[in-house]
């Protein structure tokens, strides 16, 4: 089945987990577009550039597959850097072609912040995954520290950073984060990954079971 499925949503809402599992269940390729922006930010920092002040266009054009495999792309410094470079139109233009080419050959599940609104506005199916900032902060903490008892001050700091990124992503003039009008809303505060996947698969089956 050749489908293009867009999965959008804010940071740590569970969109990446859903997209990866959905792709595996449907035997489709998966692309986490957020990693592209994270990798651009990391490569800029390694080159002595400031993602918030310097152009990332050259870095985006030069991005290599191995740059997406680094294990230091999901840390607060790169959260901020990715959000900064994502506001740069030349960076978005450089990465847009790569994203579209990835999916056009055989279909894909693609997650990000503007997949259903900009990258693939005519996607066969769109999901918008969201959760409260408090829940997302706890998930991000667990990504960094495992299941250890959370430190409240660090959780509050993560929640504040997540809310700040939400505002920046929603208010940026280029490809702002927003739910596409035809996207299926999935709120994950009280759902684990298995339940979210089951719900998404039921939507897929209802749309494409003819």
TrEMBL record:
NCBIfam families: cmk (TIGR00017). ATP binds at residues 9-17. Residues 5-205 form the Cytidylate kinase domain. It is an enzyme of class 2 (transferase). It comes from Asaia spathodeae. The lineage of its organism: Bacteria, Pseudomonadati, Pseudomonadota, Alphaproteobacteria, Acetobacterales. The keyword Transport does not apply. The keyword Kinase applies. Keywords: ATP-binding, Cytoplasm, Kinase, Nucleotide-binding, Transferase. Its EC number is 2.7.4.25. It is found in: Cytoplasm. This is Cytidylate kinase. It catalyses: CMP + ATP = CDP + ADP; dCMP + ATP = dCDP + ADP. Belongs to the cytidylate kinase family. Type 1 subfamily. GO terms for molecular function: kinase activity.
